[in-house]
Input
Amino acid sequence: MAHYWLLKDDLKDFFEKFPQADYHEEFDQPNIRIPASNLAKVFDFFKDHKTYPMDMLLDVTAVDYLTSDYAERPNLTAREEDLYSEQRFDLVYHFYSVAANKRVRVIASCGGEHPEVISSYKWWQAAHFLEREVWDMFGIKFKDHPDLRRVLLYEEFEGHPLRKDYPTLGEQPRLPLRNAEQDNGRA
Amino acid sequence: MAELEIPAKYKIDEVRKRKEILELPIASPGDEPIKINLGPSHPAMHGTIKMIAEMVGETIVNIDVEPGFLHRGFEKMMENHTYPSALPYTDRLNYVTAFINNFGYVATIEKLFGIEITERCAWLRTLFSELSRITDHYTCQAAICSEIGAMTPFLYFMQARDWIWEHFNWATGARQTYSYARIGGLARDIPDDWLDKCKEILKSNIPLLKDIHGLMDKNRIFLDRTQGVGEISQEDAINAGITGPFLRSTGVGYDVRKALPYLKYNEVEWEVPVGKYGDNYDRWFIRNREIEESLKICFQCIEKMPRTGPINSDDYQAHLPYKPEVYQTIEGLINHFKIIIEGPKPPKGTIYHCVEAANGELGFFLVSDGTGTAYRLHVRAPSFMTMGALDKIIIGHQLADIIPIFGSVNMVGGECDR
Output
């Protein structure tokens, strides 16, 4: 299904503009790795592209590479086995162009205790819940997100469960009952 | 007979004199908004969504949609189970279309391995997916009807759905959560004359659908509750990442079955119905049309399907060998144990595979590290995206409009909360 994805030949103008981007193909699907500092420019580029306007943000998710010896992520220097490694997380964006029926996957690495990257909400509203989920599960913060709080878990939850250092059988402290004001005070 | 004594304070003149009733506070714009909690224990919220609506008078000025009440850590669980043993969890993503989730999940892994499924398996998967889609649309439509107050079409839909579910039971042994797929095939072949009976059942659905159309499509009450309510424009829907019938109701003909054909969808004839206004009525209408298209696909599948042939691929790297081989040969036994204990080991890499679930694009994003367990599996859930856009749709409507809007977007807690 190679032709449903934007491959290297379709992306010539992209690599002219972002020469530091790395291209890597797996299972006929492109993986474009860019520095997290370039995200805003990449969003601009794809949103207003003439032939392939990426008008839909299909998915935003993250991968925690803490416990992995899967160090084959291209364009990365030797990985440190470190909680606060700069390349611990991969943020994965899937874009889709409804008009051209093409998809593309953009990956950006980030790290630190609570990494902070730019929010894509300004370009795609879909990012509203998706980025809240990434914050909820991975503890990655998004700059300029209008309402960054947990979405699937509750506010008092300690830790971020999809990080690899969160124990599978981890327990959470019991909470006192909420009063009515707390219960609907956050809207 | 003695006249019933009415206590003085309940006499109408007395009541009128009472200040608190005469001067009921009536909110006007400019008043402090009143917060109203809806759900999660509200029948229309499926028990899995809480909404906090801020009302000025009768109008909703702000709403906070809180999913997560059915969160069970699906993605964390997938990191601790081998590929075959994680399959039953995918049933619970969307418990009304468990087949589509099953097939989407195993197709992702098959793509990792490069396994080709057999002809008969592909046709069976297409047929089961479409039957599933019909039952999901039935459920959604039935819920809209009953929530608006129409009990008769609800029962008709439920009856039709149950015929199909009982029929699934015959083939798979379960009504809802089948776990019927296997990597590289299916759990077992369908019984003899299952297909013929299936055709009869689908034909008997058609008069029921006709009755439902007669009851609902031009019903004044139904039109008032649905037309012009919950509208969303094309641009907004695309921008919010909405897919499936919801997006098609706004006039965008995006359907994964056409855009990225998988299984046998490019070998059957069918159309993608689109709407115009993107309101509740269009969503109702699109789902009805999709039921018809799915029926069409089902009939073609039954016609074109090879009646005999293997259902499992003979690629033994991922699926269990047949039982006689396990019991009689040492290779079969080792193969069986390796797959059960360590799990099938796909090559390393990152893959995204999507299928058209009943609510939109259901995507599986999988990072494999070469072991028998996924390093990371993320599900792109269509319901989660619609929940993210719901506040924009609801704001400006009245409280009572939440119910048909929420019904018509067909949120499924299992996949939204994962």
Notes: Strands of chain B lie at 34-38, 50-56, 59-66, 181-182, 185-186, 349-357, 360-368, 374-380. Residues 313 and 330 of chain B are 21 Å apart (CA to CA).
